[in-house]
Amino acid sequence: MIKGGSFLLEDSSWKDVYTPEDFSEEHELIGEMTNDFVRNSVMPHLDSMEKHDFKKVLELMKQAGELGLLSADVPEMFGGAGLDKISSAIISEKMSIAGGFSITHGAHVGIGSLPIILFGNVEQKQKYLPALATGEKIASYCLTEPTAGSDALGIKTTATLNDEGTHYILKGQKQWITNAGIADIFTVYAKIDGKEYSAFIVEREFPGVSIGKEEKKLGIKSSSTCSVILDNVLVPKENLLGEKGKGHLIALNVLNMGRFKLGMGAIGASKEALKVTVPYIKNRKQFQTPISEFPLTKAKVATLASLLYASESSVYRTAGLLSDALDPLEGTEGWKIPAKLVNEYSMECSLNKIFSSEALDKIVDECLQLHGGNGFMEDYAISRMYRDSRINRIFEGTNEINLLAVPGNYLRKAMKGDVPLFAAAKAIEREMITFIPSEPDGSILSQEKLFVRNGKKIVLILLGLLAKKYTTEIEQQQEALSSIATIISHVFAMESCILRTEKAIATTNSEEKQKLLYTEIYCQEAFQIINTEAQDTLAYMESGDDLRLALSVLKKYTRFLPKPLIALKREAAEKVIAADEYIV
User: Fold this and answer.
1) I want to staple 140 with a disulfide (CB 3.0 to 4.6 A). Which of 179, 247, 385, 443 is the partner?
2) What residues does the Acyl-CoA oxidase/dehydrogenase middle domain cover (predicted)?
3) CA atoms within 13 A on the CB side of 31
4) Listed residue (159, 298, 308) closest to 230, CA to CA
């Protein structure tokens, strides 16, 4: 099994990476079925659901259950389809075009059901999963509180065992809970006796459970978002989920999976934004010319498509890692999954969440711009997409929290000896002064491979310097950690693009020109960002002659002869415009 985060220290091969071109016939059929359901059954009712027609939401969720679109992650032994993680990912991507309804679906199959799927005992799974798999019951995840958002461990909700020892008494309030207004089953986090962080399965019908009013949201209006009030709720002790005092393992690991699924949803939404925009710009004329023919329009289209290619390549690469790790456990007794295994790819899941949500925001923003004034009008779908996209940078831990977690967790692993980070950093330190920059050898993607190789070395230089200078105060260096995480994000995305393109060329014996163009465009722009982030970080950590020396070393790792991006973008855009949508 490929170790999480190993891409920073090891060379990766296209033979080991999963890409959308690897879909089986079954995967394609699942994608088509999901797409047909969303476009034919969900989208016609989106306007009414945007006005809180939750009766229709529930009706459609049951239809989704009948089609098996709620049961992909539920093992067969508990009434589910027990599909592989690739199938589950495809469903999340295809469902994502449905605005707030996709949030209802995603919260139900993701953070709503996964706590029981991954951490419930056999009895809990037998009791709850069959109804969740069909849509007879809807799931919700209750973590956020008025004083505890990204600080997930700072919750105030308490649980106290009653005198008879039969029930826990839960008291507290949860805020901004997705699906709260329609949910039947809640995973609630509380501290036993105010100390031991634990998770509980709470049913809506338990006395003392009440639901607040529907929130008035900027976007995702067709999903339900309410407060959940727990007023001395009696919860059977059998509904303690996992071990007493170990609820944080459930919360954080379920969020890892939620981040991955959010990244997958952002891909589908990004594709849809281009799908509604490209035909529009071919029909919209200014100065007697379709704006799709303007070079600046083509530059925008190519930039967005290459960003989407990087996002798609990264998230499906992670899907392959998760599939390899978790799919073999399907069918084992009780389908028990060690928390450590779920946590293995926490870095990749955070990177997916950060990169894909920011890519989506840029894509919908530019697509709205390409609509001109019409993009600001509610009659056009892009205006809803623009509003709906914004929550993704907040959901499942803000992007800022995820940015800090990426290098922070990696440094903690290194300090425990789980990854040889410091040895690798020392090796780079010995190399720096005598390092002679390599030149591309003229082979396909040779320059882009140098970007990745040198990008990884820059990460090691910065992490090593940060650890040396700040030791126990690393967590306070949030700006530097964020910059390093941004570099890591682009390194992962660049490498994912390259590996996907290499694999396509090797397995099809074709030129794969569009994939090559996307990879060249994205990698060059990403590497320029890496250079800027590295300069800013070094300027913070060093000064005077030490800074001059550090910048001279950095210059050796970031020197390159630029490719003609303007021409590359014009060529890439023409294919997208001809196809009326994102195309690879």
Assistant:
1) 179
2) 141-233
3) 12
4) 159
- Mean pLDDT, to the nearest integer, of 5-34? 97
- What CATH number is associated with residue 133? 1.10.540.10
Mean pLDDT of all residues in 9-26: 97
pLDDT in tens, 118-175: 999 999 999 999 999 999 999 999 999 998 888 888 999 999 999 999 999 999 999 9
Mean pLDDT of 256-268: 96
pTM of the model: 0.96
pLDDT at residue number 149: 83
Pick from 120, 137, 154: which residue ends a domain? Answer: 137
Mean confidence (pLDDT) of the chain: 95
As annotated, the active-site residues are: 396
Distance CA 29, CA 5 (A): 32
Are 202 and 306 within one domain?
no
Instruction: Say if residue 543 is exposed, middle or buried (CB neighbours under 10 Å; 0-12, 13-18, 19+).
Output: exposed
Question: In this structure, are 392 and 500 located in the same domain?
Answer: yes
Q: What b/e readout covers 408-432, taking b as 16+ CB neighbours within 10 angstroms? A: bbbbebbeeeebebbebbeebeeeb
User: What pLDDT is attached to residue 85?
Assistant: 94
What are the tens digits of pLDDT across the range 318-332?
Answer: 999 999 998 887 666
State mean pLDDT over 454-458: 97
Burial 3-41 (b: 16+ CB within 10 A, else e): ebbebbbeebebeebbbbeebeeebeebbebbbebbeee
Per-state percent for the chain, helix, strand, coil, to nearest 5:
65, 10, 25
Residue 469: predicted pLDDT: 93
Q: What is the pLDDT of residue 66?
A: 98
Contact 424, 460 (CB under 8 A): yes
List CB contacts of 19: < 8 A, sequence separation 6 or more: 313, 316, 317, 320, 499, 500, 503, 504
Query: How many other C-beta atoms can be found within 10 angstroms of the C-beta atom of residue 567?
Result: 10
Do both 368 and 431 map to the same domain?
yes
Q: Given a cut of 60, is residue 335 above it in pLDDT?
A: no
Residues above pLDDT 90, as percent of the chain: 91
Distance CA 355, CA 402 (A): 11
Q: With 0-12 CB in 10 A as exposed, 13-18 as middle and 19+ as buried, what is 381?
A: buried
Per the DSSP assignment, residues forming a β-bridge with 158 are: 171, 191
Given a contact cutoff of 8 angstroms between Cβ atoms, the answer to whether 239 and 209 are in contact is: no
Q: Is the pLDDT of residue 334 over 80?
A: no
223 and 299 share one domain: no
The single residue listed with the structure tokens 């295994």 is 341
Same domain, 476 and 506: yes
Find out whether 529 and 490 touch, Cβ atoms under 8 Å. Answer: yes
- pLDDT recorded at residue 337: 67
8 A C-beta contact, residue 484 and residue 459: yes
Domain boundary among 100, 119, 137: 137
Q: Hunting for tokens 């903690």 — which residue is that?
A: 412
Query: Is 462's pLDDT higher than 80?
Result: yes
**The domain containing residue 221 runs over which residues?**
141-241
Cα separation of 225 and 215, whole Å? 6
